[in-house]
Known about the structure:
Helix content is about 25%, strand content about 45%. It is an alpha+beta fold and about 350 residues long. It has two domains: about 110 residues, Serine Threonine Protein Phosphatase 5, Tetratricopeptide repeat (Alpha Horseshoe); about 220 residues, Beta Barrel (Porin), CATH 2.40.160. The strands form two sheets. Strands 2-4-5-6-7-9-10-11 form an eight-stranded antiparallel β-barrel. A two-stranded antiparallel ribbon has the order 1-12. Helix 1 runs antiparallel to helix 2. The longest helix is centred in the first third of the chain and has 36 residues. The protein is rod-shaped. The N terminus is likely disordered.
Amino acid sequence: xxxxxxxxxxxxxxxxxxxxxxxxxxxxxxxxxxxxxxxxxxxxxxxxxxxxxxxxxxxxxxxxxxxxxxxxxxxxxxxxxxxxxxxxxxxxxxxxxxxxxxxxxxxxxxxxxxxxxxxxxxxxxxxxxxxxxxxxxxxxxxxxxxxxxxxxxxxxxxxxxxxxxxxxxxxxxxxxxxxxxxxxxxxxxxxxxxxxxxxxxxxxxxxxxxxxxxxxxxxxxxxxxxxxxxxxxxxxxxxxxxxxxxxxxxxxxxxxxxxxxxxxxxxxxxxxxxxxxxxxxxxxxxxxxxxxxxxxxxxxxxxxxxxxxxxxxxxxxxxxxxxxxxxxxxxxxxxxxxx
Length: 339
C-alpha cells in the first residue's frame, strides 16, 4: 500500500514537469519558425536539437525536421540537410508528401529511396479441403460406388518474406503450417455404414510471383506460384455403424506409413491491402492444387486391420484446398539517397 501511495505521489510530482517540457518544446518550435520566417537561420539547429531527442509530439517532431531541413538547404549545408532527411525517414518511413510541404523539402525527399526494402507477413486464416477421387477402392461392390468425401474446415498459420522483383512484380517465399480435415461416408453394405474424419498436419514452403495493381483506388495483387508440401501426420477417426442397434465400432488410426510425404502444389490467388490505423494488413484468397495422390499404392493393402474392423481401403485421392487468410505486414525500411 505504501509503495502504491509513493508511486502516485511521484506521478503527481513529475507530471507537471512533463507538461512543462512539452510546452517548452512547443514554444521552441514556434520561436524557430519565427526565426526562419525572419531569415535568422543560425540559431535554429540549437533551438530544435534538444527537443528532437525528446519533448516534441509526433506532429511537432515531423514539422521540426522539415524546418531544420529547410534551414540547412537555405544555408547551403547540404550534407547536414541529407543527414537530417535520413533521420526524418527513419522516424517517419511511411511519410507521404503533403500538398503544403515546402518545395525544397519535397525535392530532397524525392531523391531518397522511401519504399520498404522488404516486407514480412505474419499470416493466419482458414482453409477448406476439396477432396477429389481419382480411383475408388473398397470391399464393397465398386460398380455401384457409395463412398462420398466431404469438404471440412481447417486453418493455416505462417510467415512470408516479400521483396521487390521488377517494377510492379514482387517475389514471395514463406513457410506455412496447415491443419486440414475432410470427411468420408460409405454405405459399405446394407447392414453397415462407415463414417470417418481425416486429419492432416502439413508444412509447406510457398514461393510465388506477385503482380501489384490498383483498382478504383484499392491496392491489390494477383499471384502465381508453387508450394512444396511435406505431410507430417495423417490420422482418421473411424466409426462403423451397424444396423440392428449394435454398438458402433470406433477408433482413431494413424495412416502415416501409408501416405506419401511430399507433394508439389501449384498455387494461385488474389489479395487486397488495407490499413487499421497505422497497421498494415492484407487479405488473401488462394487455391492450392494437389498433383500427387496421397496414397502409396504398394502399401494400400498393408493394413488388414482397416479392412477387417472398419471395411476400409484407401482410395486414390487428391486433396485440393481453398484458403482465406489475413496477413499483418511488417515493413523494413533503409532510406538511401538514389539521385
